[in-house]
Design brief:
Blueprint: E1 5-7, E2 10-11, H1 26-36, E3 44-50, E4 56-61, H2 68-74, E5 79-80, H3 90-102, H4 116-121, H5 130-138, H6 144-147, H7 151-164
Parallel strand pairs: 1-4
Antiparallel strand pairs: 2-5, 3-4
Helix pairs in contact: 2-3, 5-7
Length: 165
């Protein structure tokens, strides 16, 4: 049976939608799921209801025990997220985020140039782009690229932007 599954407790970068461009590393995030679990891969799925789009909310594990959501986050391609109080997997997801951050993987690194750390590293003194980067870092509804950052990394990037803006 084919079922649309929204992995619980992660926020991956959004793919292009109409006039809205794709977020940084969205293709890579989708690609890692295809790499890990191509069609017809046996998965153990734990369901936690449905979201407003009718997708099943839950988590999936490969036969070798790999938790899909945690692996996407561990590779730096998604951020921890709790919606509606459903935080069942946050400890594992948060540990995966910390591992990705320490290794500067994906959204935590300065490659590719679209990541927030890369955008900050490229700022010059009194750079007009600093205001947009700062707004992104301080947003109440951050993109997956900002949400993926640890609080300490985010604060460090804000301080860097402030010093250059």
């Amino acid at each position: 049976m084919v079922e649309r599954l929204r992995l619980l407790n992660i926020n991956a970068p959004e793919k292009r939608s109409g006039a809205i461009p794709a977020e940084c590393l969205s293709g890579e995030a989708a690609g890692v799921l295809i790499e890990l679990a191509p069609r017809n891969t046996p998965l153990r799925v734990v369901r936690h209801g449905k979201d407003r789009y009718g997708r099943t909310l839950g988590e999936a594990w490969l036969s070798n025990g790999t938790m899909l959501g945690a692996e996407v986050v561990r590779r730096g391609l998604a951020a921890p997220l709790t919606v509606g109080g459903l935080a069942a997997y946050r400890p594992v997801i948060d540990a995966a985020r910390d591992e990705a951050a320490a290794a500067h993987r994906g959204l935590h690194g300065t490659v590719p140039a679209c990541t927030v750390p890369a955008r900050v590293a490229e700022l010059k003194p009194r750079d007009p782009a600093a205001a947009a980067v700062l707004a992104d870092l301080e947003s109440r509804t951050p993109s997956a690229g900002v949400a993926a950052l640890t609080d300490a990394h985010r604060a460090s990037l804000v301080a860097t932007v402030m010093s250059r803006g």
